[in-house]
Specification:
Helix content of chain A is about 40%, strand content about 5%. By secondary structure, chain A is mostly helical. By secondary structure, chain B is of the alpha/beta class. Chain B starts with a helix and ends with a strand. Bound molecules: iron/sulfur cluster (SF4).
């Protein structure tokens, strides 16, 4: 038993509900397109490396593989990207016709200027990372974090986050933050992924225990690896 | 279809809902937090090659080993050296803030000559050659007038090459007035001398003790070697060892102890003797020790004069507590009693030290694991005696200005008496060197010290910082800071195994400064004759290398070496040296002022966050001071709520604190952890010099108190002063 008034309301609801839903969907769609497609394009600027570098070519030419250029110094610290002095050992003069190499020798070697490489894996200054602990002690592969960079023939475009100034590699190519492979992202969560799930080897000292039929109640860890996830000063292992 | 307000709104709502399921908000949130770390005003050292240098922290007598992290040529962080026998990787707040003393604004960057009035802050920059010739000319004049003994020096300690270069300089020049900054080490040294007949220091095997009875020592407030004591304290906690803290105020140490026993300040010696009485009466003492010299007299003393009831009245501690404390202490397997209030920078009453030492002896822990060891440092400084001409011989015959060695035969140096001697006209100085010390700030009765310094016509400061003494000097010859120089750092500070560490240049000198050792030698060489011959070394570094001999290589490699021995003399403990006779009628070291005009008693307290010696708090450290200690620019005094009620003072109110020596504006902090009738003020505040981060914050305790001479040692034994609080 509807009254006149109710009818009037129904009519007007009918007339407006359509456009309201439509505009809602339009808004939704627009923002999805913006958020997923346009935003990443705006967020990152595209930069080219000063010199296009061919890893494959170099790998063939050097004797000790990756370690010829990326090595551990005597004190255990990691050399990272080679300094000019190292390149000059072979490239005092251009060895081929490649315009990139000619440019390298003319612009950098001749002037004794370091190449301003754009470092894909550069982390903020508050992060302290020991290559030795991961590569030497935990015997991890470089590729676990850096991917198949050694197989590249050209330098990738370096995408720089306009807000933070860091490379897109840190957040990962996929703007959603999801990844398929371990090397596709380098945020703290990705470190934590291993540090919380993997059983990390530690040097364990077994404390004296006089009653041999009882299980030993405790073991004391003497290594540092487990510290990252357990003890109270854990933060300061990576954030100095 | 009409596009109206509603459609627009639903478009917006759709947009918002959609945005929430895109990465945009989450990514922006993450990016903006990283962006905020990269603001241009956030200092980030440029990237470069990392390196580490091992050295020693010299900011307090603790002697911690440090590992300094560098990026290229810039120091970026100081960490505790792992495996170092004192601090094994630990570090205190001061040690951590050391970088600010290297790069901070308070440094003196070049030699300075005063041009305005003293303390006015008007300086002329001069070259090192000018500075040295200026000093040389003055010293040559004084010497040719036969006044060589009127030159004095104040340095931080008596061991190590730098203090010894000063001593040698004065000897060759002809002055006995080599003065050092006093501390509880002087009192402990004298106690061991009187009771054990050894010239040694007390070393505490704290790590192995299982019942620690502390007579007001700030175990975690900077007593002894601070980081070592933190570690010992944590180990006690972890292993269920007992700590009993006796002091009138609930300090951090007291709060972390197993039992805090508040005591009327100044009566600690009576309590120690009262405990001795309970131990002897209940036959809980070590039987071997009762054969010792003077034991019977000591027994008579404590039994006749320190009965539990009487001690209870003197100290305000109940008889039951005294008895149970004595029994628990004596029954522990490795009991250890320590004394020296707060950080131990006031030498204190010798009676108290002797009473506490007797307590240790009673329970048989002298030269035992977990007990007190008499330790001696190896003296690696084997320089031949300097040739002395007749002026030097004459000068060295004169009595010291501070009366040490004559009026007070057992004491080597009595800096606390200097001001009074000069101000009363009993002695005078023509020139004074100050190195590694800031007496205008850190000695009691700053006003009197300032007057005394005004009467010294020529003051030369070697300070690296514009501290109070430097700003009142005539000439500043700035030393390199500890991260820029070589120096041997012998450390005793209550260690049972003394250590010598090597401070070494971590970075090259940042300014036009010179090593104080080099400057002393340059002045001597410029004076010529026997003075020049007394310093045959080319430079301080050469002198240090030669002096350390084989130790040098070890120190360069390891950074430290054990440097001393435990003396193994046993059985000749003297329980009742002459000096103890005064205890037959107990009276605490008197406090200055009348009880009528000053009804309260002001005592100082020390905190690990406040440095109160030569070095003032760096900016990081002063930021860490709680606002119940320093509120804005005003220091807070602690009073019991009962006292507050009587005086009509409520929390946070401003008040004037008056003592017979001075007056200061303070803020009131009501605190249950302090005995009624007592006012506590932190030490380490109230600087007038240094930088804007430190100057003008709070008031200096030393301006409110005067020294009280201990009758035996002559050292300062003042533990408090009478005071009055009035409303503003
Ligand atoms: S305790 Fe003393 S020596 Fe050790 S780090 Fe702190 S200030 Fe330096």
């Amino acid at each position: 038993m509807s009254t006149q008034d109710d009818k009037a309301k129904e009519v007007s609801a009918d007339g407006v509900a359509g456009p309201i839903i439509l505009f809602f969907i339009l808004g939704l769609a627009a923002s999805l397109v913006f958020g997923w497609v346009i935003f990443p394009k705006l967020l990152y600027s595209q930069k080219k490396q000063p010199i296009d570098f061919n890893h494959v070519l170099h790998d063939e030419a050097v004797e000790e593989g990756c370690e010829s250029c990326h090595f551990f110094r005597e004190d255990g610290s990691f050399s990272g990207i080679p300094k000019l002095a190292q390149c000059v050992e072979c490239h005092e003069e251009a060895q081929g016709e490649d315009p990139n190499e000619v440019k390298f020798v003319e612009e950098y070697v001749a002037n004794g200027r370091e190449v301003p490489w754009l470092v894909y894996a550069r982390q903020p200054d508050c992060v302290f990372f020991s290559h030795a602990a991961h590569v030497k002690k935990a015997e991890m592969d470089c590729g676990t974090c850096h991917g198949h960079i050694g197989e590249s023939e050209h330098s990738r475009v370096y995408e720089e986050n306009r807000i933070t100034g860091y490379s897109r590699d840190i957040w990962g190519k996929n703007i959603s933050g999801l990844k398929k492979h371990t090397w596709e992202r380098m945020k703290m969560d990705d470190c934590a992924e291993c540090h919380t799930t993997k059983e990390i080897k530690t040097d364990v000292e077994t404390l004296p225990w006089p009653i041999n039929w009882l299980p030993r109640p405790y073991e004391k860890q003497t290594g540092n690896q487990a510290r990252v996830k357990t003890v109270k000063e854990a933060c300061f292992v990576c954030h100095k | 279809m009409k596009i109206g307000r509603r459609s627009f709104l639903s478009f917006v709502i759709g947009g918002v809902a959609g945005t929430a399921i895109t990465p945009l908000p989450w990514k922006l949130m993450d990016d903006s937090s990283i962006w905020s770390q990269n603001w241009p005003w956030t200092p980030v050292p440029p990237d470069g090659e990392y390196s580490q240098v091992n050295s020693v922290c010299t900011l307090c007598p603790g002697g911690c080993g440090i590992t300094v992290r560098k990026v290229d040529d810039r120091v970026v962080k100081i960490e505790g050296m792992k495996g170092h026998p004192i601090n094994d990787g630990g570090l205190c707040l001061m040690g951590l803030s050391g970088l600010q003393l290297l790069y901070g604004p308070t440094r003196v960057k070049t030699p300075l000559k005063r041009v305005g009035k003293r303390g006015e802050g008007k300086w002329e920059k001069i070259s090192w050659d000018e500075a040295i010739s200026e000093v040389t000319k003055k010293l040559a004049d004084i010497r040719s007038n036969g006044e060589s003994h009127a030159v004095g020096s104040i340095v931080d300690s008596e061991s190590g090459t730098v203090p010894n270069l000063f001593k040698r300089f004065l000897t060759a020049y002809g002055s006995p007035n080599f003065m050092t900054v006093p501390s509880i080490q002087d009192s402990y040294g004298m106690t061991l001398q009187l009771m054990q007949g050894v010239s040694a220091q007390a070393g505490f095997d704290a790590e192995n003790a299982d019942f620690i009875l502390s007579f007001g020592s700030g175990i975690i407030d900077g007593w002894g070697s601070p980081v070592r004591m933190f570690k010992a304290n944590s180990a006690w906690k972890a292993n269920g060892k007992k700590v009993v803290q006796i002091e009138p105020r609930l300090s951090n140490t007291a709060a972390k102890s197993d039992k805090w026993i508040p005591i009327k300040p100044g009566t600690e010696a009576a309590l120690a003797l009262g405990l001795a009485n309970v131990i002897i009466t209940n036959s809980l003492d070590s039987k071997k020790i009762s054969q010792s010299t003077g034991f019977d007299s000591f027994k008579k003393l404590v039994q006749n004069e320190y009965s539990t009831d009487k001690v209870s009245k003197i100290t305000g501690i109940t008889s039951a507590t005294i008895v149970s404390l004595a029994k628990n202490f004596a029954r522990a397997s490795k009991p250890l009693a320590i004394c020296g209030k707060g950080q131990g920078s006031i030498p204190g009453s010798l009676n108290e030290f002797m009473a506490v030492h007797a307590l240790n002896a009673l329970v048989g822990n002298i030269n035992k694991d977990g007990g007190v060891w008499a330790v001696t440092e190896t003296d690696y400084i084997k320089w031949p005696k300097p040739e002395m001409d007749s002026i030097a011989e004459n000068g060295m015959q004169k009595e010291r200005i501070d009366g040490a060695g004559s009026e007070y035969p057992h004491t080597k140096s009595l800096l606390n008496r200097l001001a009074e001697v000069i101000n009363s006209g009993d002695g005078s100085l023509e020139a004074l060197f100050v190195s590694g010390a800031n007496p205008l700030y850190s000695m009691p009765d700053s006003k009197a010290i300032k007057n005394a310094f005004d009467n010294v016509p020529f003051i030369i400061s070697f300070s690296s910082y514009m501290d109070e003494t430097a700003s009142n000097a005539d000439l500043i010859l700035p030393n390199h800071v500890y991260l820029e120089r070589y120096e041997d750092v012998p450390t005793l500070a209550g260690l049972s195994k003394p250590i010598v560490g090597l401070a070494r240049p971590v970075v090259k000198p940042q300014f036009n400064t010179k090593h104080v050792g080099d400057v002393v030698m340059l002045i001597a060489k410029a004076l010529g004759g026997g003075m020049a011959d007394a310093f045959p070394w080319e430079s301080y570094e050469a002198c240090l290398k030669e002096t350390l001999g084989v130790k040098w290589d070890v120190l360069v490699e390891k950074g430290f070496e054990f440097n001393g021995d435990k003396c193994m003399l046993e059985g000749d403990f003297n329980f009742y040296p002459e000096a103890m006779k005064s205890l037959s009628d107990f009276s605490p070291v008197s406090v200055e002022g009348s009880a009528i005009s000053y009804p309260l008693i002001l005592i100082p307290y020390d905190s690990i966050r406040l440095a109160n010696g030569y070095i003032g708090d760096p900016p990081f450290a002063i930021k860490a001071v709680e606002d119940t200690v320093l509120k804005g620019k005003t220091a807070c005094v602690e009073i019991n709520p009962k006292t507050g009620k009587e005086l009509g003072l409520t929390e946070g109110r401003y008040a004037f604190l008056h003592t017979p020596r001075g007056k200061a504006k303070v803020k009131v902090h009501l605190y249950e952890g302090i005995m009624p009738g007592i006012v506590a003020l932190p030490r380490g505040l109230g600087h007038t010099a240094y930088d804007k981060y430190l100057a003008g914050k709070g008031c200096n305790f030393n301006e409110l108190i005067g020294p009280a001479e201990d009758p035996v040692s002559g050292l300062d034994a003042a533990w408090g002063i009478r005071a009055r609080l009035t409303k503003v």
